[in-house]
Specification:
The structure is a homodimer of 527-residue chains. Chain A has 527 residues and is of the alpha/beta class. Among the domains of chain A are: 220 residues, Glutaconate Coenzyme A-transferase (3-Layer(aba) Sandwich); 148 residues, Glutaconate Coenzyme A-transferase. In chain A, helix 7 crosses helix 8 and helix 12 packs across helix 13. Chain A starts with 40 loop residues before the first helix and ends in a 5-residue tail after the last helix. The relative contact order of chain A is 0.11. Chains A and B meet through strand 4, helix 12, strand 18, strand 19 and helix 13 of A and strand 4, helix 12, strand 18, strand 19 and helix 13 of B. Chains A, B: Pfam families: AcetylCoA_hyd_C, AcetylCoA_hydro. Chains A, B: Keywords: Transferase. Chains A, B: Belongs to the acetyl-CoA hydrolase/transferase family. Chains A, B: One of its GO terms (biological process) is acetate metabolic process.
């Protein structure tokens, strides 16, 4: 570090960034140098070659390019129809939308995909063994791309909400790895999406201080609302080969209203928070919340509206509907994330209200939103969903029956290992009661017992902190498992305690995965 | 952070700390206030009550208290002989020695143990289900103790190498969690061990800037040789109830000289490093090395003596024999660790030579040596051993046949997830060829595929970075597996590719753990 003092976070006065004139809606492409590069999506897609590696914007269904990928998919279909091979390698922030992963996968155009997918068409291709998919910790994608072993990045295709007169790029509804793709790509294609609110300008904070070792410095963020970077991306204008104008909504799934199960899970968790505050182990305003994507975590946010906690903050990957409601209720003071992930209705509403949130929201690159250094420093309360957990509290977040990937690990590993309290939650059964979420042994491990400190189902909450494996097992079976499966779990565990090879974490390898085998053979885990 | 600039690391001129007079060997207890608290180990052990929670010093067989635990074990045996219950709860840095874990376990005196053990007597108790053992990430132990859910700490029993006139404590050959135990314990018992070299004084760097959230700040360390703290522990003298004088060696296992297998593993790894330097993906002096405990990692250190890398550094948990040899050969410029873990011969030698290492070594608290923030910032090259790995590159570091714990996860999770390159290595077979280190599925997961980037056996090195599961499997089977087991692994994988539930990571749950079942039933994994 020598004599340098690492950059100090700037805490802007609330609303300070609003004083600058927001982007004019009538001129989203203000840089005159780029005017002659405006073209349609077909012309832009023609710039992409067979075998190219493309870094796309997009994180949890927001801020992804919507026209060029569709045009590219049409081009790929035409090439395939003409008997010519055409496939590309796609890197993103996280999940995108049907116009990107869906269309390209349907065209058979994706050879390789990282680091996260939730598109159903792409998922089918992956699980049919027809697409290489590399599931990564989201904090590590940008550093890995710079590290070099993934190979060069040919093209970046990035959605922005506008371009300033001097060529700075105003981000849109997600940040993801856009900064890194813009830096690393040989050529850049921009989509300027008029649908994105001009009021987004000023909500972003892009930290340009990351580096490869041995040149890394402390990241000077110590509160969720610290600003440590700049509001616009920089990009060498000579690299920008195409600018495509769009006016298309982010297409995210709607949320179901929380059902009784989600309410029960949220209730257990809020009771736990209240208990920890009472014990003096959490401050009354809690600690920065991280909330995974999904209906259950959304229900927790809604539950917090009625809960006795004030001045909450969030340091998380995505802002979902529930978090905006929690802000609107005056309970959530501030949220830092890398993306908005709103239902179609909420996104529409947000675009008319965005000004109100300009001093309450910051979107950051995912290497910052998910950085272990920052998650551990801030002491996040990490709340993530799961596919299954076992009696010792290992969690499978990704692979159904050990082999079929659902989405990916996303940022759950970044948060769970570094959280102040790492919480996983899920209904205790799935598929109408045919699958028990609690199993003798997980069929795939994403989160080891050390990183799973609290496990919650609608049945109850198991605080596993400081417990050895046998006490964890007894607590998980007794508290979290569905009553229909509890006797079989207890029976397995009792027999393991009699005949296991070792008695530290009793296990019967010949039976440990039999529940999964039964499901594969009969369609149900029930005996 | 407000207007504060986070403390800047001080880079001491080499050897600057040597200018202060080292501890006088004739007076290890210089503080007159503590003279009347000098007593024998029995009297000190009498201060410990049944049911107490005790924070002990000790990390990988060094710097652990050697007299009081033995006296406590005798007291426990006497109590048990008299029909009275007596058990304690033991927290340490990591593993200790036979005088601590061995003696107390033999006496049946340990009710609860965290966060790491390698003592064979304690291991038997744990695997007989007679001792609760909680295996934790070593970086997280101190913060968890402060967090409060583990309960209060009654007594700290800490080995030091001396006490200064003003009551500061001069650490001994390991740091572990001593700072935290001294802070948290209601009462403190010190062992002052005259066997430890007086020249240790000045090799320690104790950072007092950690806190619980929301008060955490960036840790101002950016090079392995930065000094960010102070050389002595502080401790309220009123809490010190006993001072026991000892003169006893750290008792560590000797190293075997590297065999052909260890040489082959080291050779593959050094070739990989050379290749990465050639590709421009590593600097010529590499990046700070982390090296797990064991003969194979020790062989890598010895291999580096002949390798074409200069000015190496280490940021690691423990300094083993090989690292001192690498320093002596002029190849390793500097090492930061939390403990020395030397063979008896090397420890004896070190004690006569310690002065020569005073500008080449820093020992730090384990929450700093293993801190994710620092490991990721420095970009460590993490090299750890394993018990088994599966065809997709998940690693089991802890549980034999899924149930019997060997030692514990230690710091491998802290390093593997945050390393610049995470490497795991092991011979491809164990137990005279009866166990294959590469299995269809690990029986317990400590390190998920995302955290296992390079896998090495004497058969070869598999660079798994950026590969999807199926390419990982083909590479691991073809490169790392022992030829005796390769056909059976390939057969399993081929059949899984035909009939698996999903084809992302093909798996046959009814057969995945059958190699472990066969070993349990027949004593061999061979069909």
């Amino acid at each position: 570090m020598g004599s340098d003092c690492p950059g100090v976070a700037i805490r802007w006065p609330r609303g300070a960034q609003m004083q600058e004139a927001p982007l004019s809606d009538s001129n989203r492409i203000a840089d005159p140098r780029l005017r002659d590069r405006i073209m349609d999506a077909e012309a832009a897609a023609a710039r992409i070659e067979n075998g190219a590696t493309i870094g796309m914007s997009g994180f949890t269904g927001s801020g992804y390019p919507k026209a060029v990928p569709l045009a590219l998919a049409r081009r790929i279909e035409a090439e395939h129809a003409a008997g010519r091979p055409f496939q590309v390698r796609i890197w993103t922030g996280a999940s995108t939308g049907p116009e990107l992963d869906g269309a390209l996968a349907k065209a058979g155009g994706i050879e390789y995909r990282l680091p996260y997918n939730s598109d159903p068409v792409a998922r089918e291709k992956i699980n049919a063994g027809e697409m290489d998919y590399v599931d990564l910790h989201l904090s590590q994608v940008a550093p890995m791309a710079r590290q070099g072993f993934l190979g060069p990045l040919d093209t970046a295709v990035i959605e922005v909400s506008g371009i300033t007169e001097d060529g700075a790029l105003i981000p849109s509804s997600s940040m993801g790895n856009n900064k890194t793709w813009l830096e690393q790509a040989r050529q850049v294609i921009l989509e300027v999406n008029r649908w994105q609110s001009p009021a987004l300008d000023g909500m972003h904070d892009i930290y340009y201080g990351t580096a490869l070792p041995p040149h890394r410095k402390p990241i000077p963020l110590v509160h969720p609302d610290d600003r440590i970077g700049q509001r616009h991306f920089r990009c060498d204008p000579d690299k920008i080969v195409a600018v495509v104008e769009t006016d298309a909504p982010d297409r995210n799934a709607p949320f179901s209203p929380p059902d009784a199960v989600a309410h029960a899970i949220a209730g257990h968790l809020l009771d736990f928070f209240a208990h920890e505050v009472k014990q003096g182990r959490l401050p009354p305003e809690l600690l920065p919340l991280q909330s995974g994507v999904g209906n259950v975590t959304n229900a927790v946010m809604l539950g917090l509206i009625e809960a006795p906690f004030e001045n909450l903050t969030a340091y998380t990957e995505v802002v979902q509907d529930g978090m905006l409601d929690l802000m609107d209720a005056g309970k959530l003071r501030f949220a830092s994330a890398t993306a908005l992930s709103l239902s179609p209705e909420k996104a529409q509403w947000f675009n008319t209200q965005a000004d109100r949130f300009r001093d309450k929201l910051i979107l950051r690159p995912q290497e910052i939103s998910n950085h272990p250094e920052l998650i551990r420093r801030l002491g996040c309360l990490a709340m993530n969903g799961l596919i299954e957990a076992d009696i010792y509290g290992s969690v499978n977040s990704t692979h159904i029956m050990g082999s079929r990937i659902q989405n990916g690990i996303g940022g759950s590993g970044d948060f769970a290992r570094n959280a102040y309290v790492s919480i996983f939650m899920s209904p205790s059964v799935a598929k109408g009661g045919k699958i028990s979420t609690i199993v003798p042994k997980v069929s795939h491990t994403d989160h080891i017992g050390q990183d799973v400190q609290v496990l919650v189902t609608e049945q109850g909450l198991a605080d596993l902190r400081g417990l050895d494996p046998k006490r964890r097992a007894q607590k998980i079976i007794g508290t979290c498992a569905h009553p229909d499966f509890r006797p079989a779990l207890q029976d397995y565990y009792d027999r393991a305690r009699r005949t296991s090879f070792g008695m530290h974490a009793p296990c019967l390898p010949d039976e440990a995965l039999s529940w999964h085998t039964r499901y594969i053979q009969t369609g149900s885990m029930r005996p």
